[in-house]
TrEMBL record, chains A, B, C, D:
UniProt cross-references to NCBIfam families, sorted A to Z: PRK11898.1
Name of this chain's protein: Prephenate dehydratase
Pathway entry: Amino-acid biosynthesis; L-phenylalanine biosynthesis; phenylpyruvate from prephenate: step 1/1
Entry keyword set: Amino-acid biosynthesis, Aromatic amino acid biosynthesis, Lyase, Phenylalanine biosynthesis
Organism per entry: Litorihabitans aurantiacus
Ranges of residues in domain ACT: 213-290
Length: 323, 323, 323, 323
């Protein structure tokens, strides 16, 4: 079913956090190279495009992003009409400093880029071009686009910046000179992106899956967080991500955005969900999907599907004595 | 079904830890006054009578007994062919000192009784009859029976004891003089008895029920006992009794005999059993039955049948999206 | 000591996330109205000013901020030379739409502001001025400053935007017209700010305190998070904030930024810290300080200073028997 | 100090659960062969002898005993003037069937012994001598003593039993014929005995120690038992024995008798005791002493003395910043 959908993805529309040239586009190329790529100005707009049916899928950053969107993604996924995650992609983060042809590194005094990209490169840039100043842009690609456009029309001096910081993989695409590559302060950083769809389809279990949830706590003490986490631990379900998000009605009230290892079709994950539904005032299932890294889910003793099934059958057998 | 059985209990045979006159008989009179009462010399024999079909039920002490049988009951219930508990009774424990007619308190130098009865009265007897010595008997009633028999035949002097310590409720039945009543050191003690049957019948849920289990731990550290107990706590199931029993293959290996509040038909208890079956190497279901004290089971938030059912339905609904 | 510092705060330099007119400045005015206020372009620079000794204190947002800086604050506090939190402030978040004198709401097609401010008002603005577009600025105040400057010089048309979204409390200060007030989508939101200093001073216990920590987990399963949280729960210490932060060396490795209720001088908090130090590979103490809301710390049974002291004295007494 | 005491133990009086010939005597011979051995009729009397100063030590069974005394020991240790455990011994349990010289196995119809010994051999005896009946005695040695005495005076026929079941190690000492050896149903069973003294001396830490405690629970739900056990688990302290004992004021109220691995001088054990003192209404320290099996205490990561000391020093260092 999902496979069928993927096979015809050439005709599908994928909204993404654009513009072309961003890291999100790199994720999209991994996931659905032949789909129709529809750039969106922000995460909310990309997700709303799927909600409205203007796109079948959206690709947005969810973890450790350099272009923002992480908090926005967590919040936008969970407010408004329901959406689910159906896949994920990992992209290595590396930056290049680009400028109009002929610009020398020592000419650069102002660099346009997204504030998060700036934050990730400020140390390296301070060494390469001491005294350089940040000019904020809405994306890494936006600054480069302005540079290229003004370089073409010959009025680059009026821009207020001489260079842009862009995703390394897209450096060549802007038609600009690359002054430096690998200018990120932390080499090897990776951003995680999710593929989002309308509810109704859960990709089949592969044995190397993740399940994304949003859970509200019953109250705000350490005990209630323990109670929530014990629902996972009691069934041997590990978490690969947990992030608190303010619920928004008051400081100190938190929801938790969680990625659990395993799939809705796994008995231990179903049992953990059942427990969460009982003890938490609100639980939102946001999808089960294959892990991008393909690492198989660890199964602790007593938590296999067989262990759950045979325990349930044992109790059912005892109960037949009731009649 | 169970009601039908109880209605015709006049024709049923109830084995009990005898002889007549013991506290166990008092429990039996509470539970099944019209049944055929079959005294047995010890707990193992009483339970084996049910196993062999020589009796339909057995009544034996299980908690805080003065006549022994508690450890024996826990162990005998769980070795051999399976048995289940189908009811319980509570009996107040009070003792009387009895002797052949004409005997005065100051004549008493030796007192026959079961060692556990002696242990419960030794302080009071030491004040009533300083220097008095214990002569062990197999039950509280056995010493009194010998006294009565020898008093009748006129050879009481050869017995080696002048008085017996018996269950207060049976003091009059022995045909002996009562030298003192209420000689127990702790006033108000209660012993708990269980009614045991062959498997196949679970009394219906009343809302004020207990469930008896035997559980082995996976290994011997504090963590494994925690893991076992969390199966109850995670579902809001309280315990009214927990006793360790050596497994017998080695010092330091323990089983736990447990009375949990609630009935096999309660969803939270079924969920706790399912969890135990997964994490413990051995779980024995020993019956669900009405509490003698009639106290309704407390239901914590999120642990009602409705809470479990709606959580299971929620997960089932999510899973329908899988197909 | 701290009191002495506060008394002379008129001569102290407070770096803050500027420029003048931001919500952070409103927090600073609460905390130290008479201090020297030193605006900084970003959180890292503000904190580094304290590290270098260019300022005695910094005021930066830490929770639920509309101008960013939250993740940046959590990360910047914990990398580089050590800093501690010595106070906090709460500021209600409300926005105004301002423009050059004479501008009408229907003239507004582009609005300059910080992206996070835009995110918080986009719904209301879409109703007030359908089709309005966002122009990113480095702060709420920066857009307004440009508007005011260009309005004065008569070349506002060249700016590329007709209005700015600013902190409501500073709307009047820009010398611009207020087109609309209270344009935030969520009324009543509050941002929390912290006052940061070099280590060496811990404000005295008031009975209504918080303690901020950064804790790394030993490994990445649900069990290790439970183990960490149990250190608090076992001593009756509640948490008022917990946020996961990627450690940065790999996806899926998390540190937790935590605000615990209570003060380093509280025995239960000291005991929790002792436990954390044993079970976690890294624990960073980031300060104990009075709560802005003045709510007294709840003390559960068995967790008062007396309970800890008497337990320690009991064990010490037992140990004296060792010698 | 303790060593000094042991060196002069030849002059010490050791009360024990007698008479001579019991398994308890075998334990005493292991522990203090040269001491003065003072047999006592029951556990309470043996312990009271130490309380009154009539003996320096008592040796009594505490776990898995065939001659009773286990529950009695647990209860008697903890009521009355304080006592502590200063050592332990393990004795293998094996029985022999003895009779007056000339008696043949087929002549045996009644066997005198302690009821618990009978319980441990009834299966084997039923095969050796079908139809054989139990005659209760106050100890295994008591029945044999009567047999030997009556055999000497030639009136054995009046006794009412033809054989006795005795501790195998003492079979030869009674001057009777051994009809069968190794008649216990479970081969290899071991009983554990403790050496009890007045408080004031704690044997020094050996690295292979046990600590015995009695702990009351704050209330009776599964949660309160968890809370108690977490005090051990949180400090990496394993339990080698846990037994519930009814508190006696009401059915369903339990104390727990616990042997924890480790010594009062171990930091993790001291920390667990501190926690218990805070969360439980009653904690009784009953001694730290070397393990009979010499197995060294396992030390989990983060629970060594160093881990505790360095955590305490870290917190103390933070607190010095307070002044």
């Amino acid at each position: 079913m999902e496979n069928a959908v993927q096979q015809e993805s050439g005709t599908q529309r994928y909204a993404f956090l654009g513009p072309v040239g961003t890291f999100t586009e790199a994720a999209l190329v991994q996931v659905a190279p032949a789909a129709q790529h529809v750039p969106m100005p922000d995460v909310v707009t990309a997700l709303d495009a799927v909600r409205r049916g203007d796109a079948e899928r959206a690709v947005v950053p969810i973890e450790n992003s350099v272009e923002g969107g992480v908090s926005a993604t967590l919040d936008a996924l969970t407010s408004g009409d329901p959406l689910v995650v159906v896949g994920e992609a990992l992209v290595e983060i590396s930056f290049a400093l680009v400028a109009a042809p002929g610009t020398r590194l020592e000419d650069v005094r102002h660099v346009a880029t997204h504030p998060h990209a700036w934050a990730q490169c400020r140390g390296t840039l301070a060494r390469l071009a001491p005294g350089v100043v940040h000019v904020p842009a809405t994306s890494t690609a936006a600054g480069a686009a302005l540079l290229a456009e003004h370089a073409a029309s010959g009025d680059a001096d009026e821009l207020g910046f001489e260079a842009a910081l862009v995703a390394a993989h897209s450096a060549a695409a802007h038609g600009l000179d690359v002054l430096a590559r690998g200018v990120e302060d932390n080499v090897g950083a990776v951003t995680r992106f999710v593929v989002v769809a309308r509810p109704g389809t859960v990709p089949p279990r592969t044995g190397a899956d993740k399940t994304t949830l949003l859970v509200h706590l019953p109250h705000n003490d350490a005990g209630s967080l323990l109670t929530m986490l014990e629902q996972f631990a009691a069934r041997g379900v590990n978490l690969s991500r947990i992030e608190s998000r303010p619920i928004g009605d008051a400081l100190g009230r938190y929801a938790f955005s969680i990625d659990a290892e395993g799939h809705l079709a796994d008995e231990r994950l179903a049992a953990a969900l059942t427990g969460l539904h009982r003890v938490c005032p609100f639980v939102l299932f946001l999808g089960s999907y294959p892990r991008a890294d393909g690492v198989a889910t660890a199964v602790a003793p007593g938590t296999s599907d067989d262990a759950f099934t045979s325990a349930q059958e044992w109790v059912a057998g005892l109960r037949r004595g009731l009649t």
